[in-house]
Amino acid sequence: MRFLKLLKFCAAATGAALFLAGAAAGQAAPVADDPLLNAAREAWRKRDRADLAVLSERAQSEQHPLAPWVDYWALFARLPAAQVADLQAFYRRWPGSYVEDRLRNDWLLELGRRQDWSAFAADYPSFRMDDDREVHCHAVVAEHQLGTGPLKPGGTAAEPFKVRALAVWLAQREATEPCTRLGELLSEGRKPVFGAAEHWAKLRSAVEANRLATFKQTAELTGRHQQTQLVRAFEDPTRYLLRVAKAGGRGDQEAAAVALVRLGASDTDRVEQLMRQTWSAALAPDLAQWVWAQTGRQAALRLEPDAAAQYQRALALGKAPTWSADTWAWGVRAALRANGGAGDWALAQRLLDAMPEPVRQSDPAWDYWRAQAQYRNAAEGPEGEPARRAARAALQAQVSPLNFYGQLAADELGLKWALPPTPAPLTEAERQAAAQHAGLSRALLLIRHGLRNEGVREWNFSLRDLGNDRALLAAAQRACDAEVWDRCINTSERTKTEVDLAQRYPTPFRQQVVSHAQAAGLHAADPFGLIRQESRFITDARSGPGASGLMQVMPATAKWTAKKIGLSDYHPKQIHDADTNLKIGMGYLRHVLAAFDGALPLAAAAYNAGPGRPTRWREGVSMDAAAWAETIPFTETRDYVKKVLTNATLYARLLGQPDAQLRQRLGQRIGPRAAGSPNPADTLP
């Protein structure tokens, strides 16, 4: 509840960050039946290198199942002084393991810091995860300094160096030292790799993401005068536009465009006025197009009615846009809300047809809305039938019970989708292969000892070794049998053709969930759908803001709800009890549903983001409920609402409602609350 970021793991995090994240996430205390591991954890907490060295030797001599992790802590603690031989010995001790690759990640960062590019180039090809953007920046620098060509074959290695280097530089949004060095190095010399065009691409990305530090570091590459202008434009756009900006050369225009986009983050009306008065004609077409598109994006994020018009002005400038994925997405969403909620389907289709293929393929939403736009834009009568037939075929190709738009496409076409067939039972050999997998075993042991973050990372890395659906199903079942439900669900979701719904949509605590749902006047499918998204059935789950338990209830919400449902003896510590958590969570969900007239999309949004936000998001226009869900301004809440409704529909099927449909829970339309009805933000915590 309230922006849950449970189990969010940064691939670039150091071993220290991964270890400490466990305590920050509110995980259970480690079990007390392993003195060696507990001593190692304490030594790691104190950064006691001497004790860690002794404990590592002991763990190896005793063949402790978590010896690789104790060894990892011991070597990581002295990594700044380590030599290549130390790392090679570690790799030989734990070949193919997660800790081998984890330490290689840390070591590559250390080699980059040392600028030991020969050693970096020798080790980097063995880095299997290869998911650290800082390492990527070091790899580009190493390639440039050594003149060797790509350090790792495959993927984008065949692309020109400049293309690969720019992609790596643009992918790093934070102002980190390795990627700053990359930008500086490739912008130096008599024949720099990066010039004005690449600098502008990075500046534009930093403006859109509101990354001041990254913007400033990139601005330093443009020369002192231009740097001063750009930073002024970013930090105080109104003052810059009124007192400094001028329609001069390209540098002046870029600074003015930055100021206009920055101003649009708070006042799109003022930007539109300034563009009409002066800047639309004064800026180069590509800059004017960017300003209009970003103004439209900001207006769409605030659900303003003129957002679609801003995108129309951008497209009118003709040149094929080179927009970010987020800018494309919000253009479509602006079109869905246009015309008082009826949608501007011509604009939607134009944007979706022009959307780059990688962007469109990244989210099933875009194929769904493209088919809808094609259908609605078709000419009336027989003339438009080929287009309508093509749109229906495109929708039918999306039908699937396993995602929001797949279910929605089936409902739109009036199709009765079926649940996937149950896979054949696992063989004893398949079960034994999963049971004997060392990485999976270590992962479960780490989780048992309260090191959930480390365990999840080890588990996910181990799945790389499982080459087919049957092996994944066996691994998932091992997690299910151990009641590690998040690994059970997430592992089973990786299968391509064999779908085990008992794994993907398990029903732990079934008797309690059903009982409390009935007492709260809910169908059990809805809280099951919510719990699966909130906590993955982890009883001791806790989010950064403090939401706890299966239903991720905030402390203040729990206190308020306990009073409402008559738990007179409630104590805050009881929220960690599964039964109490379910009772309070469902009591709150019942009140939220009542406050939003039974509309599950609004209630789910309120459960995740608080009641005030969906109360605002429903104002202004009445629109199709699916379009409303797609235009929720917060990425996490938008994803949450769609997944909760998808989950709930599937759970309804599994719990005895064979004809359950997504549209039944989604509803037809969402619009402003009735005049005089209470504001949920005033009645709910």
What does this structure look like?
The protein is mainly alpha-helical and 685 residues long. Helix content is 63%, strand content 1%. The protein contains 40 helices and two strands. The protein has a two-stranded antiparallel ribbon. Helix 20 (345-354) crosses helix 22 (364-377) and helix 28 packs antiparallel against helix 29 (485-492). It starts with 14 loop residues before the first helix and ends with a helix. The model is unreliable at 2-30 (pLDDT under 50).
Quick summary:
This protein has 685 residues and is mostly helical.
Tell me the fraction of residues in β-strands, as a range.
under 5%
Task: Give the number of DSSP strands.
Answer: 2
Q: Quick one: overall form?
A: globular
Count of DSSP-assigned helices: 40
Q: Mean pLDDT score, rounded?
A: 93
Q: Walk across the major sheet and give the strand order.
A: 1-2
Largest beta-sheet details: 2 strands, antiparallel
Q: Radius of gyration in whole Å, from Cα?
A: 27 Å
Distance between the termini: 12 Å
Oligomer: single chain
Structural class: mainly alpha
List its traits.
685 residues; disordered N terminus; 63% helix; mainly alpha; two-stranded antiparallel sheet; globular
Secondary structure layout:
Elements: H1 15-24, H2 35-46, H3 49-61, H4 67-77, H5 84-93, H6 98-114, H7 117-123, H8 133-146, H9 161-171, H10 177-186, H11 196-209, H12 212-219, H13 224-235, H14 237-244, H15 250-264, H16 268-282, H17 285-301, H18 307-315, H19 325-337, H20 345-354, H21 357-361, H22 364-377, H23 385-398, H24 404-413, H25 428-435, H26 438-448, H27 452-462, H28 469-481, H29 485-492, H30 501-504, H31 510-519, H32 525-534, H33 555-564, H34 578-595, H35 600-609, H36 612-617, E1 623-624, H37 625-630, H38 635-654, H39 662-666, E2 669-670, H40 680-683
Antiparallel strand pairs: 1-2
Helix pairs in contact: 2-3, 2-4, 3-4, 4-5, 4-6, 6-7, 6-8, 7-8, 8-9, 8-10, 11-12, 11-15, 12-13, 13-14, 13-15, 14-15, 15-16, 15-17, 16-17, 17-18, 17-19, 19-20, 20-22, 22-23, 23-24, 25-28, 26-27, 28-29, 31-34, 32-38, 33-34, 34-35, 35-38
